[in-house]
Structure formats: C-alpha cells, structure tokens
Specification:
Keywords: Signal. The chain has two helices and eight strands; from the N terminus they run αβαβββββββ. With 135 residues, the chain is α+β, with helices and mostly antiparallel strands. The protein is globular, with a radius of gyration of 18 Å. The N and C termini lie far apart (38 Å).
C-alpha cells in the first residue's frame, strides 16, 4: 500500500513540475497582409519559439537563428479555452487585441502555436503557425 501511495505522490509532483516545461516550436507557415517581401520571408524562415505555459499566461522567446543569439521574450495573458485550444492575448492600453496566440495541445500530433497580429482597427496583418519540434 505504501508503494502505491509513494507512486501517486511522485506522479502528482511530476505533473505539477511539468507545467513549467519549455517546448520548442519551429515556424511552419507565415502570411502577412498584403504580403511578405522576400527579405521578410528570409528573415522569418529560421524563426523558432520557446514556449513556457503557466497558469495565467504563456511566455514566448523568439529566436531568429541568425547572428543575434539574444531572444525577444514576450508574455501573453490567458484569455479563454475554446474546444481544447488555449487563447492568449496582448492588448493595448484601451483593450484592443494586438496579438492573439492560440495554443493547440496535441496528444498524438505535434503541439501547434498560431500567432496573429492585428492593426489598431482590428484587421489581421500577419499570421504565423509554429509546430512543436519533436524527434
């Protein structure tokens, strides 16, 4: 009986620690409106993201893969969960959504992050899809 209790304790501790795990994503699709230039496509082609999911937010470290090894780090606030996808946003001071992150956790497939950027009038001006890097 004590062995089962010890196993359960280790399982719960392991699940609690795993929520802070970092996941690496690589860019798989990108679009901009009206369109991306060839220079922008080349710049974003090697883009990778490290994601740390917390209870109230997601922290993304953007790594360009070029000479600059310092990642750009930004945190997005949890907004809601819809059909298994977590939605995170970055809002302006007056409440308009500037960036929306959708995190789709895959059980048998790779996790997926979708990042959409919006203009001040609410039009989508860019969209990036990242797939989890797994072997």
């Amino acid at each position: 009986m004590k062995l089962i209790q010890l196993f359960a304790l280790l399982l719960f501790v392991g699940l609690g620690v795993s929520s802070q795990a970092q996941t690496r994503f690589k860019i798989s699709e990108m679009e901009a409106y009206p369109r991306l230039t060839e220079i922008e496509k080349a710049h974003f082609a090697g883009l990778e993201v490290d994601a740390i999911v917390n209870k109230d937010n997601i922290e993304l470290s953007f790594i360009t893969g070029g000479d600059d090894k310092n990642p750009f780090i930004n945190t997005y606030d949890f907004r809601e969960k819809i059909q298994g996808e977590k939605i995170y946003t970055e809002n302006t001071s007056d409440g308009h959504v500037m960036v929306m992150i959708t995190y789709k956790k895959g059980l048998f497939e790779k996790d997926e992050l979708t990042m959409r950027q919006f203009s001040p009038n609410g039009d989508c001006i860019g969209s990036f899809v990242f797939k989890e890097e797994r072997n």
